[in-house]
Amino acid sequence: MANRQKSFENRTVLGKTWHILGLSLLTIFILLASVSCQKAEEVGEEEGKSDKEGIIEFEGTVKVAHGKFVYIPEARGFDIIVQGDISGGIEDLVGKEVKGEGEFSLDRPAIVVANTVAVKDAGGAYQNVFTRTEDVVFEDYLSMQARDEMFPSLDKLAYNKSEGWEDKEKAKVFGKMERNEDKASIAIFDEKGNQIGSIIVDDLHDFAEYYMKKLTLFDKFWFYLDVKETVDWSTRRRTRELFHADVLFAGLY
């Protein structure tokens, strides 16, 4: 009996020892994990330092170039602005391997302003084709915040309900761009996919055209508009053309 009691006491002491040891190891693990997380955050901040300081290096193959906007998929999704003259013209960059340096601002987190652009030649060397010498004009650029705050959605449009747009200066509509030789318009559809009317496009800004080229897999977009004059009633009733507008931007939301 005494031996069994002693054995039980030994097992109890051993169990408590392992329990204490386990808690100690858990505490050490938590401390190490905390230190590792802190180090990772410090490394992340250091790696992102160039972004915060406004210096971005980009390199890759140009997929879209229009107006003064360039899209390079490898450049982390930035829209790159090339402000000024570029050797050969900006659209000549499409399909070419380029690298350069630009400026990043937290005020416009999707934009990089190019300071230099160089194109890889047939021998594999990079030749400079652009060096910025002028200030950037952001007239064509429309930020996401502006899109959210300034452009109400026009819903349930109809040719015989001009009050749906006439009190608006800016608005957005979902539709499809249609063009012929002398005219561009936005076709508007109902929930069943039937066309109910169109909006006459007087001016298509470069930023909108650039984004439609960038989103080549889609043919319908949200169009952000400066709403202009209403089409007169007799023409509207016959053609279902609703009003004139300038297109500032086109995107998927």
Describe the structure.
The protein has two domains: 51-131, Beta Barrel (OB fold (Dihydrolipoamide Acetyltransferase, E2P)); 144-251, OB fold (Dihydrolipoamide Acetyltransferase, E2P) (Beta Barrel), CATH 2.40.50. Helix content is 29%, strand content 36%. A hairpin with a 5-residue loop joins β6 and β7. Residues 1-14 and 23-51 have low confidence and may be disordered. The chain has 253 residues and is an alpha+beta fold. The strands form two sheets. Strands 1, 2, 3, 4, 5, 6 and 7 form a seven-stranded mixed beta sheet that branches. A five-stranded mixed β-barrel has the order 8-9-10-12-11. It is elongated. It has five helices and twelve strands.
Helix-strand string: HHEEEEEEEHEEEHEHE
Strand content: 35-45%
Provide the CATH architecture of the largest domain: Beta Barrel
Q: Say what the CATH topology of the largest domain is.
A: OB fold (Dihydrolipoamide Acetyltransferase, E2P)
Radius of gyration: 30 Å
The portion of residues assigned to helices is: 25-40%
Q: Termini separation (Å)?
A: 81 Å
Principal-axis shape equals elongated
**Major sheet characteristics:** 7 strands, mixed
CATH class call of the largest domain: Mainly Beta
Assembly context of the chains = single chain
